[in-house]
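Per reviewer request, we include the raw input and output of the structure prediction for the construct analysed in the revised manuscript.
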Amino acid sequence: MQIDVLTLDASKAGDLDLRDDIFGLEPRADILHRYVVWQQAKRQQGTHKAKERGEVTGTTKKFVRQKGSGGARHGNRKAPQFVGGGKAHGPRVRSHAHDLPKKVRRLALRHALSAKQGAAELIIIDEATVADVKTKVLAEKLQKLGVRNSLVIDQSVDEGFARAARNLDGVDVLPVIGANVYDILRHDKLILTRAAVEGLYARLDGSAAVQSAAQEEAAE
């Protein structure tokens, strides 16, 4: 399929053929959901902790009479039913990460890109650079493109462009190696440069994807 390539000033700079196996799929919500759950689980800190009965202070002597108190024959103040006692089956420090096959991860990224293309939320630009590195200047250029909340992906992020975009609310900039399903889906628009499209092709092709797997996991 063909798509227009624009400049940051919203003028046409040519066109580009997009691969149907990456940008022309019918998005599958189940695959996208699996990826987002996997990605968010990796980000979860897992530092939640509650003290159990072996970690709180309390007597382990029998503290009421055997008979006559009208209550049970308790012999441990650290039991969960007492105020100040330990938590029964409370949360423990652990990792929430789980495995997701690389093939599924690559497929999910293809479906995320296809979802943006199918919803007319994909914009291809010639390059993501600004001569005048100012937030106001970049905001005006993005306004010409009709963009407010967007993710900009380039092969390698231009330092000046990233600095200009840093204070724009809702605008994030990522290199191709950091492109991920969650960030693509949570933004209203996806902006790719020509170089980013070629970089995504290389990343999503089998051999290149295997070589960059470690970097990809670190980025996500």
